[in-house]
Design a protein that fits this description.
- By secondary structure, this protein is mainly alpha-helical.
- The chain is built from 8 helices and no strands.
- Helix 2 packs parallel to helix 7 and helix 7 packs antiparallel against helix 8.
- The longest helix is centred in the C-terminal third of the chain and has 33 residues.
- InterPro entries: YczE/YyaS-like.
- This is YitT family protein.
- Keywords: Membrane, Transmembrane, Transmembrane helix.
């Protein structure tokens, strides 16, 4: 038990670091003024049409994702993953912190906006990778992608791109029904839907090479 506890603590530290970087990434993507991130696109558009805060809608969306996981996995769903229901409030705090950290950003040049968007996507992808690497509880938004990827036998990054693209399409439909036009979304939303998945795959490959190299060095 003495050797397991420090390992468990390290896993949760890595997991929290992942949530932190996700919060920074979403904040930076939003501050690029090119549209919010795919994971927050539906709640953001709905918050513009309903008397409900974006944070409450994100919590409800995460709860929906959690129950989708339960439906797919069934009785084999790990008991510790029920803690996903506690991730929402922490995630919200990190997003608010990220918005505060980047509050000074208000780019006017399109090139600068693109740079901020790309960096935000990298931070968001890093956060997702760290959560997966922690091998503990998951953010429901990533947990549902992992469950689907495992079910269909596809790479996480590829499923992530399709999943984010679906969220953006839903947000677009909600926007057209509610406003008759595109509101709360931009080209950055579409770009990040594909860039985040790409960067997750890239960071995963780099991370796997580092882990493999360390194993070889330890075995030598």
């Amino acid at each position: 038990m003495k050797t397991q506890n420090p390992q468990r603590i390290r896993q949760y530290i890595v997991f929290l670091a992942g949530l932190f970087f996700m919060g920074l990434g979403i904040a930076l993507v939003t501050k690029s003024n090119l549209g919010t991130s795919p994971i927050s696109s539906v709640p953001y558009v709905l918050s513009m049409t309903l008397p409900i805060s974006m944070g409450t809608l994100i919590f409800l969306l995460c709860t929906l994702f959690f129950f989708i996981e339960l439906m797919i996995v069934g009785k084999k769903f790990p008991k510790k993953q029920y803690l996903q229901l506690l991730v929402g409030p922490i995630f919200g705090v990190f997003i608010d912190l990220g918005m505060a950290i980047f509050s000074f950003l208000d780019p006017s040049l399109y090139f600068v906006k693109i740079v901020e968007l790309v960096i935000g996507c990298i931070l968001l992808a890093l956060g997702i990778y760290l959560q997966i690497a922690a091998n503990t509880i998951l953010n429901p938004g990533e947990g549902v992608v992992k469950v689907i990827a495992d079910k269909v036998g596809k790479e996480f990054g590829n499923v992530k791109m399709m999943f984010d693209g679906t969220l953006v399409l839903v947000a677009l439909m909600v926007s057209f029904v509610a406003f008759g036009s595109i509101e709360g979304l931009g080209e950055g939303t579409i770009i990040s839907a594909f860039l985040v998945g790409f960067f997750v795959k890239l960071i995963s490959r780099i991370g796997n090479k580092i882990v493999y190299k360390n194993k070889l060095e330890n075995a030598a």
